[in-house]
Amino acid sequence: MTITGNSEAAAWLLLIFSLPSKRASERVGIWRKLQKFGTLPLRNSGYVLPNRPVNQERFEWLATAIRGFQGEASVLQIQSIDDLPSDTLKEQFREERKPDYALLIKEIQQLKPSTQGFQAQLVRLKRRFEEIAEIDFF
Questions:
Q1: pLDDT by residue, tens only, the chain of 138 residues
Q2: How far apart are alpha carbons 30 and 25 in whole angstroms?
Q3: What is the DSSP string of 4-63?
Q4: Ranges of each domain in the chain
């Protein structure tokens, strides 16, 4: 049997972990962070993000936190998922962001420059856009 190496950089990061069942509140905290970071669940195996330095740092941070809660965690760099083509995975990331953008657009359309607090609303909407754009990978 011959195994050949692939010199291409890994396109994806996969975080797999388990936490003891008595750690329900910690599990919720980890789940909220995963949502905030824009991860996609990979069935019930783990969570996927594009392989970028910021995402590597986020997953390493989460893995350290999980281990601190007496759990187990691994961050893997993967090239592909055999039954989930890269284009399909990218499209799933795009689809996950659509509701965020739609809500933001709706709020912008309802914004009235003449109202009191307009500047504060504008700052808040800009911050929301930046948060969404940060996790809009493709």
A1: 444 455 568 899 999 999 998 989 999 999 999 998 999 999 888 999 999 999 999 999 999 999 999 999 999 999 988 888 889 999 998 898 899 999 999 999 998 888 788 889 999 999 999 888 877 776
A2: 9
A3: ----SPP-EEEEEEE--TT-HHHHHHHHHHHHHTT-EEETTTEEEEE--HHHHHHHHHHH
A4: 12-78, 86-135
Largest CA distance in the chain: 72
CA gap 48, 65 in Å, rounded: 18
**Statement: 12-78 belongs to CATH 3.40.640.10:** no
pTM of the model: 0.78
Residue with tokens 């709706």, as numbered in its chain: 106
Query: 6: which 2 tokens?
Result: 């692939």
